[in-house]
């Protein structure tokens, strides 16, 4: 017996430790950390309960008892918690003038007109006897302790705000300390004597205590010696048993500090002695159940700064709040990402959010590199040195000599006149004077080696002069400040040579090329100066 008790106690302790370790591991995992909006939050609650009690056992005329107790709960998260509770109270009931086949004499159920039927006496023997007139009542003064895992059903909602009313369910393990006293009475003394005698002969005095008319206990030895007259019979049981509590409840939030609720809790008990009626009859139950319907009041506890309690926080609300924040931020950032004119500058910073140009400054304003009033995207000469330009951004040249008006010292030169870089007509002397020849400058577009149509007339005049002077050799000199500029200057000079050869038959050998770096550059590196080569 001692070994069995030790094994039961060890098993009970292991179950309790397993549940506790689970909760502690969850708590260390920081479940609440995912919901930063609700931190810090209260996790503890303590309270009291008062409960009507009901026993479902072998003495099936159950009465309503009463119990009171206390509880403490730790909420691991918004949905899970661990609750320790204890109660002290009474379980009451009995069997009213019934035979052991289930017929009752109070008319509540069974056939009271039956006189002859199969029944059993205390010894478990069955016979064709009349119903007994015995009555049995008991009282169990109990104490219990329970550890349960609680799951809250009402605080996770996807479509509505958290309500003030919650449902919860629980399951756990516990123990009950019972102190049971029962009593048999029978209107028929002879029948009571017969039943007690049969019981004694078969089962001994375990859980059974017959007394005589004076209230003295009749021992088995006394009974066997003189067949003492039994006036009454008591049953008794005192012990501790494992229980499995389970149930559900509802509670309501009454502000930051108080919860009120109702809890239905049933206990499966590993015992058939909670009603003191543990006789091995054919209809006897092997395990008793007792139930508590408790009214509870709980106070929510927390440290300074903890306003809300975990039990009343919907984890979905913080997710929705984060989504709302993200949407709000996205709306604020929307102008940063919107670019109505597609120039690469968001409308938030774009001072010209409807420009047609893709070449813009950092503020979205269209570029005008030469400040001539024509945007670079429409400017054929985006780096013109003149402010007086046409609608295409090309510097105006009134006399068509290839020199823009803004630097042309003779803006009305004769048509096809040879001019120098300042637009001054060259004095070539007589028809056949080939010794002192003044040659013009050819202007190219920025980063281009293509000859502008405006320079065709100038090159025509150069070709005519070279035809008139077969011995005239000229040079084409470009200007640069770096290696890439050297290549561009060379390409421009080559373009002039190709043009004179292809259109006027001027030999390439009569034209030499070269470039100058830095010095002598008066206003632009986009020009090629033509000059006479003195042999």
Listing every helix as H and every strand as E from the N terminus to the C terminus, the arrangement reads HEEEEEEEEHEHEEEHEHEHEE
Silhouette: rod-shaped
Which CATH class of the largest domain? Mainly Beta
Number of helices: 6
Cα-atom Rg, whole angstroms?
Answer: 57 Å
Overall CATH architecture of the largest domain:
Beta Barrel
Helix content: 10-25%
User: Main beta sheet: strand number and arrangement?
Assistant: 8 strands, antiparallel, barrel
Quick synopsis:
By secondary structure, the protein is an alpha+beta fold. Helices cover 20% and strands 31% of the residues.
Description:
A hairpin with a 5-residue loop joins strand 5 and strand 6. The longest helix is centred in the N-terminal third of the chain and has 27 residues. Helix 5 crosses helix 6. The chain has an eight-stranded antiparallel beta barrel with strand order 1-3-4-7-8-10-11-12. The protein has six helices and 16 strands. It starts with a helix and ends with a strand. It has about 525 residues and is an alpha+beta fold. It has two domains: about 290 residues, Porin (Beta Barrel); about 140 residues, 60s Ribosomal Protein L30, Chain: A.
Keywords for this structure?
alpha+beta; 60s Ribosomal Protein L30, Chain: A; 2 domains; 8-stranded antiparallel β-barrel; 4-stranded mixed beta sheet; 20% helix; 31% strand
């Amino acid at each position: 017996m001692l070994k069995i008790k030790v094994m039961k106690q060890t098993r009970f302790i292991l179950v309790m430790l397993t549940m506790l370790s689970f909760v502690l591991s969850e708590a260390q995992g920081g479940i609440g950390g995912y919901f930063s909006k609700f931190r810090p939050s209260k996790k503890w609650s303590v309270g009291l309960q008062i409960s009507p009690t009901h026993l479902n056992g072998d003495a099936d005329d159950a009465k309503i008892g009463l119990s009171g107790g206390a509880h403490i709960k730790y909420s691991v998260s918004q949905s899970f918690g661990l609750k320790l509770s204890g109660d002290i109270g009474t379980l009451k009931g009995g069997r009213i003038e019934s035979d052991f086949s289930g017929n009752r004499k109070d008319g509540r159920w069974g056939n009271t007109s039956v006189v002859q039927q199969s029944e059993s006496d205390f010894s478990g023997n069955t016979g064709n006897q009349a119903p007994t007139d015995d009555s049995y009542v008991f009282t169990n003064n109990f104490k219990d302790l329970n550890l349960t895992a609680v799951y809250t059903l009402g605080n996770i909602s996807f479509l509505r705000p958290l309500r003030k009313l919650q449902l919860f369910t629980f399951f756990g393990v516990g123990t009950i300390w019972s102190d049971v006293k029962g009593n048999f009475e029978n209107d028929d003394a002879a029948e009571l004597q017969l039943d007690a005698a049969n019981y004694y002969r078969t089962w001994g005095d375990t859980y059974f205590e017959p007394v005589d008319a004076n209230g003295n206990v009749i021992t088995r030895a006394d009974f066997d010696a003189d067949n003492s007259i039994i006036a009454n019979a008591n049953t008794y049981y005192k012990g501790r048993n494992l229980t499995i509590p389970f149930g559900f409840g509802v509670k309501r939030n009454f502000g930051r500090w108080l919860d009120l609720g109702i809890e239905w809790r049933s206990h499966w008990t590993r015992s058939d002695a909670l009603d003191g009626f543990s006789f091995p009859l054919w209809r006897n139950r092997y395990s008793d159940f007792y139930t508590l319907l408790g009214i509870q009041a709980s106070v929510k506890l927390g440290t300074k700064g903890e306003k809300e309690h975990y039990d009343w926080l919907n984890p979905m609300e913080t997710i929705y709040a984060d989504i709302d924040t993200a949407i709000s931020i996205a709306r604020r950032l929307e102008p940063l990402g919107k670019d109505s004119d597609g120039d690469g500058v968001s409308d938030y910073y774009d001072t010209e959010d409807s420009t047609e140009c893709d070449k813009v400054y950092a503020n979205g304003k269209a570029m005008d590199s030469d400040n001539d009033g024509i945007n670079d995207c429409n400017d054929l000469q985006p780096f013109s040195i003149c402010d007086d330009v046409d609608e295409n951004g090309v510097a105006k040249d009134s006399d068509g000599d290839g020199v823009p008006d803004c630097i042309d010292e003779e803006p009305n030169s004769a048509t096809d006149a040879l001019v120098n870089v300042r637009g001054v007509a060259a004095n070539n002397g007589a028809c056949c004077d080939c010794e002192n020849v003044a040659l013009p400058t050819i202007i190219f577009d920025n980063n281009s080696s293509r000859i502008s149509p405006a320079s065709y007339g100038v090159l025509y005049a150069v070709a005519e002069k070279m035809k008139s002077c077969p011995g005239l050799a000229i040079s084409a000199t470009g200007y640069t400040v770096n290696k890439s500029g050297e290549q561009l200057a060379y390409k421009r000079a080559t373009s002039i040579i190709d043009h004179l050869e292809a259109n006027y038959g001027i030999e390439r050998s009569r034209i030499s090329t070269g470039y100058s770096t830095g010095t002598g550059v008066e206003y632009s590196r986009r020009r090629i100066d033509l000059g006479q080569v003195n042999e």
